[in-house]
Amino acid sequence: MNTKKFTILHSNDMHGDFLAEVQGKKGELIGGLALLSGYINEVRQEEENVLYVISGDMVQGSLIDSEYKGISTMEIMNYLSPDVVTLGNHEVDYGLPHLLFLEKMANFPIVNANLYIKKYHRRLMRPYIIIKKAGFDILFTGIITDKIMDSINQDKLIGSFVTLSEASAEVGRITDAYKKDDIDLTILLTHIGYESDIELAKMLKPEWGVDMIIGGHSHTILEKPAEVNNVLIAQAGVGTNQIGRFDIVVDDDTNSIVDYKWKLIPINDKLAKPDKALTKYIESYKKEVDKKFSTIVCKFSKKLTHPKREIETSLGNMVADMFAQAAECDVMLVGAGSIRVKEMGPMVTLGDVMSCFPYDDTLSQFSIKGSQLKKIFAHIMRKENRDGEGECYQVSVGVESVYNDTKGKLESLSIKGQMVKDDKEYTICLQGYHVSSSADYLNISEDELRKSGKSKVVSTSAQSVLEEYLGNHQNISREVEGRLVYKK
To answer: In the Cβ-directed half-sphere of 417, how many Cα atoms lie within 13 Å?
Structure first.
């Protein structure tokens, strides 16, 4: 038996989480790229055969990243020097041309097998890479979530094989074409969510020889990897507070993993020393951003929170209410994932506002029937949408919607104390991103939204609406008040 030990470190959904945080009574430093880099450096020195991989969403989610449109993140990622990375849905947030620019900046390979230029049936990204390590050949390929299509679906040149069965077929295409006898290990980097990873693993043919799926997107914290269809599946939560670590033994004769250990390693100052050079580099960005965004915008009467996107939150209610007031609509639906912080206030700076809501998008109003509004709420509130992978929403004041999880149906929907009537028209306001992806996220097509002929753009910049409102209102307060109710 000819075997070798490999250490595979893996991150996902880092979202520009550059800075360490002080937590606990003893003031322990948690996370941040400098500490993460310090740990990766130590492992690379201690172990002989180390690979570091990232399963998407390096960018978007921090003020530094937003200000530099991912350029700062890519420069810092170059410093971390991952061996291979796959795309996440947020890599496209700054637009397709900018993604291609960021890809050219990268000193590391970015693999994706199922994003295509449709007309020419050519993949947009490098579909795979074979890394040679210690005399072994390791094949990596990548699969993206279908959410990437929502960010670029206005560019009709770009398409993707997005269903799980089609994604599975793409994996087969890669392995059939490139997995020769000398490929000792095959690793699939995904950004489709943990539950979808499990379903994907069930579809993979044994002949394709996929040994591992290292995923992202659902921000899942695991106690141990899943093992489905002889495929190991792992993910490492969200941010830089932890990193996944596989220590595996690979048999060159059978091209298989014969032994493994996996841990989710908490990143703190007890584990490793911060990388001083990277700390200095990040601080140079932070200093410029702090100078620009330290201005105080307003003060809340108390801290507002957004602990989970699947539930109604006080911070979500505030954002939805501000947009609803600007749009003068009956219902404002704000993508809960658009709110990127778990708490804000009482003191609010311009930087806090930008960190909270980094997506500068349009706000559009539509007039639809009550029956269609009920259809939307029945879709967004369904239990299977609240699994960490679905698209959930915060709603504006006056809306009261009750969903019965046991019966799997919408029980009631009222606006300003009046039950919604099927044949009555209501105005609904949506972010541009959710308009273009309304068929998937809201169960209503964009054509249906516009059918009444009364649609209009009420703002070209949601960020400006938020900033202006906060700058002119003090002592704002919101509560969780039963706008979205889930009955068991």
So the answer is: 0
* First-to-final CA distance of the chain: 55
Q: What is the pLDDT of residue 20?
A: 65
244 strand-pairing partners? 10, 264
DSSP 243: E
Q: Which of 447, 440, 371, 460 is nearest to 410 (CA)?
A: 371
C-alpha 33/C-alpha 311 separation (Å) is: 30
Which stretches within 7-62 are classed as H helix?
A: 33-46
Confidence at residue 63, expressed as pLDDT on a 0 to 100 scale = 78
Q: What's the pLDDT at 390?
A: 85
Q: How many CB atoms lie within 10 A of CB 316?
A: 28
Identify the bridge partners of residue 349 per DSSP, sorted by sequence position: 296
- Cα 55 to Cα 48, 93, 186, 218, 376: the distances in Å are 23, 16, 15, 11, 32
Q: Which CATH number fits domain 294-487: 3.90.226.10, 3.40.640.10, 2.60.40.10, 3.90.780.10?
A: 3.90.780.10
Q: Do domains 3-286 and 294-487 have the same CATH topology?
A: no
| Adjacency order of strands within the sheet including 256-266 | 110-111, 84-86, 50-55, 3-11, 242-251, 256-266
Q: Please, what is the average pLDDT of the chain?
A: 91
Number of neighbouring beta carbons within 10 Å of residue 368: 23
CA distances from 247 to 4, 43, 184, 227 (A): 11, 11, 16, 16
Burial 14-34 (b: 16+ CB within 10 A, else e): bbbbbbbeeeeeeeebbbbbb
Q: In 3D, which of 333, 335, 338, 316 has the Cα closest to residue 427? A: 333
Which residues pair with residue 277 across a beta bridge?
none
Pick from 161, 247, 219: nearest CA to 390: 219
- If 0-12 CB within 10 Å is exposed, 13-18 middle and 19+ buried, where does residue 186 land? buried
The confidence score (pLDDT) of residue 25 equals 46
User: 3-286 has which fold?
Assistant: Purple Acid Phosphatase; chain A, domain 2 (3.60.21)
Rounded-to-integer distance, Cα 405 and Cα 382, Å: 7
pTM of the model: 0.76
Residue 99 structure tokens = 């993604």
Separation CA 178–CA 488 (nearest Å): 50
Is the CB of residue 444 less than 8 Å from the CB of residue 283? no
Q: Structural domain boundaries of the chain?
A: 3-286, 294-487
> Kind and range of the H or E element at 133?
strand 128-133
Report the pLDDT value the prediction gives residue 158, as an integer from 0 to 100.
55
Point out the residues of the chain with pLDDT beneath 50.
Answer: 24-25, 154
